[in-house]
Amino acid sequence: MADLSIPIETERLRLRPFTIADVDAVHAYHGLDEVARYQYWEQRSRDEVVQEVTKWADGGWDRQVADAEAIVFAVTLSQSGILIGDMVLLFRDKEARQGEIGFTFNPSHGGKGYATEAARAVFAAGFGHFNLHRIFGRCDARNRASWRLMERLGMRREAHFREHALFKGVWDEEFHYAMLAREWAEMDKGGF
Ligand SMILES: CC(C)(COP(=O)(O)OP(=O)(O)OC[C@H]1O[C@@H](n2cnc3c(N)ncnc32)[C@H](O)[C@@H]1OP(=O)(O)O)[C@@H](O)C(=O)NCCC(=O)NCCS
Predict the structure, then answer these.
(1) Is the pTM of this model over 0.85?
(2) What is the bridge-based pairing of β-strands 170-180 and 156-167?
């Protein structure tokens, strides 16, 4: 896969690879129960965040692009450089060019459209740069902020899995959302 240019700039944001210097900024939100509630992990200690960020920072985007497993984006405010969240694009099926998007933001910066703006940049990279055919996202049906974000992005609700697994000790209700490359191209042309 071709290299990804660093950083990715949007109107208000800069998406860049993680560095180990980001640990405290990530711990500020990965350490919160409200942020971990619908994730596969529990709220993280600083040591656990050090482990995560070390993995994300190792070799930067060059290594991640070469491995073709996942790219992790540090989302920062362009003006101040403050880190407000992380996004991941996972390459789930290389032959069928299927990607999965994931997002976790610091609630102190919620409600301003930053996650939407960052996700659009990740979609542009996924469809434009990595030539993905489809990008999907999954969330707990109770995670309203997450599915509203996917609807705001123009993704389609494709499935509602009912009590298909146990999640943190209770039946899991899971929504699947997706967008095809041609749907993205149509939306992009229309300027959203
Ligand atoms: C999912 C998550 C990223 C969504 O965050 P968010 O703040 O709702 O999303 P955005 O940053 O895109 O902000 C959207 C809100 O800002 C408003 N907004 C303000 N200015 C905006 C702009 N310029 N563009 C778009 N929306 C804007 C929108 O109306 C929306 O508010 P509403 O929900 O009251 O309608 C966040 O809740 C989160 O990190 N949760 C914890 C982790 C998690 O559960 N991740 C998902 C696991 S599946």
Answers:
(1) yes
(2) antiparallel
